[in-house]
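ok trying this again, last paste got cut off
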Amino acid sequence: MVDITAFVELFRATGVALVGTGLIAGLVAVSVAAGYRWLTTHSPPTGVAAFVGLSFVSIYLLSVVIRHDGFFAGVAFDHHYSAWYLLATALLCGVVATAGGRLGDRIVCQIGDINRIDRRDDVAELVRSARLGVDIQLPETIEDADGYRSVERSTRRAVAESTVRLPYGLSASERRRRIATHIEYAYGISYADVQLADDGSVDRVLVGNRSSGLSSMLPPATVAVAIYVEPAAAAGLGDPVEIRSAESGRLVATGTVRTITDSIATVIVDRDHAGTLSDTATYRLVTEPDDATDGYAFASRIRTLEETVLRWSVDVDGPLVGEFIGWLPGRVLVLGRDGRYLPIPDENETLEPGDELWILASPTEIDAFDPATNSAKTQA
């Protein structure tokens, strides 16, 4: 005779188990799809979210079988009821995981304002023809940006005539920003500037790489040397120091501190004195009685900016003579005149023949400036 109470209890346990495994599959699928869309902005590959969700459920069921020799108490693993339960679980979890993957994808698209048209089949082409998405082709010539290191020719060839897919309806500034960001991330370029034509197509692309290392920041005829120093050296970035032997106290060289990390200091010294410093000896840094400079910290900060520093000269009888500094693009950092250097000059300062200017500006601002007025322009 069938035990009704046992049957009802088994049916209840089966329902709870199905709901629990379905929730596991759905939550895992939502997380996988949402994470993939958030990190890549592309839709996850078909079936991946459902597969990962079913995998988690399979691992859970396997652990239940190992611990209890079956899915339910009193029901053997090889019983036909276990087979029907396993089949029902696979079907339910597959449906829930598939729906969860789509839900997670849509949630991230809504939160991150991500356009979901990233397919390349006939349906996607039909959608793009309805003006919901556009393909932007880059020009065949990619130019170097002023003030930046040149990008390798092979990289510029890869960028040239490539296609960037964008949502329809973006403003001109947003389109420029997205294309420039795509070029920087896709090709490992430090800086990219995009200029659009009146019809919205890309008219010009400027690319460049920032200088790395200390070489671009070293004064002429100097080198950077790493030496061992006594602990707790009372010197910081930009301090002029005497480098003395820790044993005898003898003065070995003078220089400027670049960095100090534990017992290793990087100092900038004259090229002729670099050979006197040993890579095994320990030295004592003595701060000289002089005002510390924050020039190196300032240079380090500038290197992280999108803008770059360029040097212009004002020609005699050139178009810049008599113009105000505030009329120039960017920000004038230093004005050199008659052997004197004026930092951050006033914007109403009038330019004179022979003046030298160090300007902080982006290549976009420099390129948009009337070429007839920047008679001499070289990289600082």
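PB: full thing came through this time. Residues 119 and 125 are 8 Å apart (CA to CA).
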